[in-house]
Amino acid sequence: VAGLTAHEALAAVFRAEHGRVLARLIGLLGDFDLAEEALADAYVAAARRWPEGGVPEYPASWLLTTARWRAIDRIRCARTHTAHLPALATEMRPSTDDDCPDDVALAAVGDDRLQLFFTCCHPALGRPVQVALTLRCLAGLSTAEVARLFLTSEATVSRRIVRAKRKIRETGIPFRVPNRDQLPGRLSAVLAVLYLMFTEGYVATRGPRLVRDELCEESIRLARALHELMPAEPEVTALLALLLLTDARRAARRTDAGELVPLAEQDRSRYDHRTITEGRYLLSRAVQAAPPGPYALQAAIAAAHADAPTAADTDWPRIVGLYRTLRVVAPSPMVELCHAIAVAEADGPQAGIVLLDVIAAGETIAVSHLIHATRADLLRRLGRTGEAVAAYESAIAAVANNAERDYLARRRDQLIDRDT
Amino acid sequence: MWMEAIIMEYAILIYRDESETDVDWAQREADYDAYFKQAAEAGILQNGPRLGSSETATTVRVRGGESLITDGPFIEAREQLAGIFLLNCKDLDVALDWAARCPGASHGVVEVRSVWPA
C-alpha cells in the first residue's frame, strides 16, 4: 500500500480484498444485500477519509469494521419501523474491547478464496445458482459477464441471484467454510466457477481488452490450490490441465497492439511450451481414471491444438471425435458451434455451414456473434464473398468485445479490398 | 459472533411411500421415539402431529363462493405427507443435519422449510 495515493490504495484493496471482505461480512450478517450495501457505504467512507486521514495500516480490516457499523445503522433504520429496536440495538453492538477483532475474523476464514467459493456453493441452492452467485459476488464478475458465460440473458441471471440471496436470508443458510467431508458434494460447482472465471478472463465479454490477465492468472492459481487439496479427483486434475493448455497460447493470441490473432495464424513459437508439458502430464494422469469427463475432453482438445507444430498439421478428425463425445457428456450451444468449426476443418466449409444452420435454428442468443463470424469465415473460403461480408456485418453488430470487433472488421475489410 | 444468537424455526415435513410393504412397524416406532427424544433433549423440538394416511384426506376448494369437495389428497403422488414437526436451529446447516437423522429421511423423503417469524 505504501507509496500509493489514497485512491490508488482503495482501488488496490478493492481488487485484492473485495471478495474476502464481502464474504466475511455476509458470514457476519447472514444477508447478501445488506453486506453489499454496507460495504459500498464503507468504500464511500474510505474515499472521503483516506485522502485526509491517511490510508489505514490494515485497509481490509478498516473496511470490514466500517461496513459492520454501517450495517448496524442500516438495520437500525429498518427496525425503527418495527419497534424491535431497543433490544436488538444492544444485542448487536459489536464488541469493541478487543483491539482488532476483524483481523482475527479474516484470518479464520483464511485468505484462500477457494474456501469462500466452496462456502458460496451451498447445496441448498440449485447448481446454476451456486455458480452464478459465486461468480457475481466472489469472483468479481458483472451480471452481464455471468449472463454471457451462462449463455443466457442478464435478466435471468439477476433473477437467479435475487432469489438466491432471498433464500440465503430467509432460510438461514450459513455463510461458513464447509467441513472437509462437505467439499466433494460442492466440487462440481466450484470447478464450474473456476472454468467460467478463466473463460471470462480469456475472452472478455466486453470492453477494450481481449484478455483480462488477472482473471486467467487467479483462476489458474485457484485451480492449482484445488488440485493440491484434492489430488485424486480426476476432473480437478483435468480442469487444471485444460486451463494450462489453453493459457499456454495466451501470448500468441494477440499482437503487441492487443489485436486478436486467430488460431490458424498464431506464431506457435510464442506458445508457452513448459506450460503445455505440464498440462499434458496432468491430462495423462486425469484420464487414467476412465471415462474422461467434460474437462478432460476439453483438455484433450486443447492438447491436440498445442501439439500441432503448424495449423496445417492439426489433427482435425481427432478433434471432431472429441467434440462428438463432448456433445453427449456436456451438451451446450458453444460445444455445438466448436464441433461445427472442427467439422468444417476436417470435411470442408460446406459441411460446417450445414451444421451452423442447425445451430442457428436453436436458442443461441449468447453465441450469435460467433455463429455469424464462423459462417462468414466459411463463406469466405467457399468464395461466396458477398454473403461473407454480410455475415461479418451481423457478427460485428452482435459482438461486445472491442478486440474481437476490430478483428472482424479487419477480416471484412480485407474481403472488400480484395474484391474491388 | 454478535448475530449468531438468533434462532430460526424450521418445519420438517416427512413424506413416505404409502405402498411400502414389509415394514417393521415396531422398529420404526422405536426409531422415531429415539429421534424425537434426542431432539427434545437438545432443546430444539416443537412437537407436531403425526398424520393419518392419505386415504383419510379430503380436499376442499372454494371457487366463486362454491365449495368443491373431493376425495383424496391434493397431490396424487407415491410419496405422501406423513408428518410435520418444528425445530429451532441456529441455521439451515443445523436443521439439515437434524433432518438427515430423522428416520423419515431413510425410509422416505424429508423436506426442510423455513418458518416465517411470528
What is the gist of this entry?
With 420 residues, chain A is an all-alpha fold. Chain A contains 20 helices and no strands. The chains are: A mainly alpha (420), B alpha+beta (118).
Q: What can you tell me about this protein's structure?
A:
The complex is a heterodimer of chains A (420) and B (118). Chain A is 70% helix and 0% strand. Chain A has helices at 6-29, 32-53, 59-80, 85-91, 101-109, 113-120, 127-137, 143-149, 154-171, 183-202, 213-229, 234-247, 273-286, 294-307, 316-329, 333-347, 349-360, 368-381, 385-398, 402-419. Chain A starts with 5 loop residues before the first helix and ends with a helix. Chain B is 27% helix and 35% strand. Chain B has helices at residues 25-41, 92-101, 103-107, and strands at 8-17, 45-46, 58-63, 66-71, 79-89, 109-114. Chain B is globular. The two termini of chain B are 24 Å apart. The model of chain B has no long low-confidence stretch (mean pLDDT 90). Chain A binds chain B through residues 28-30, 91-95, 124, 170-174, 176, and chain B through 1-3, 5, 8, 10, 89-93, 95-96, 112-114.
Chart the SSEs and their pairings:
The complex is a heterodimer of chains A (about 425) and B (about 120).
Chain A lengths: L5 H24 L2 H22 L5 H22 L4 H7 L9 H9 L3 H8 L6 H11 L5 H7 L4 H18 L11 H20 L10 H17 L4 H14 L25 H14 L7 H14 L8 H14 L3 H15 L1 H12 L7 H14 L3 H14 L3 H18 L1
Chain B lengths: L7 E10 L7 H17 L3 E2 L11 E6 L2 E6 L7 E11 L2 H10 L1 H5 L1 E6 L4
Antiparallel strand pairs in B: 1-5, 1-6, 2-5, 3-4
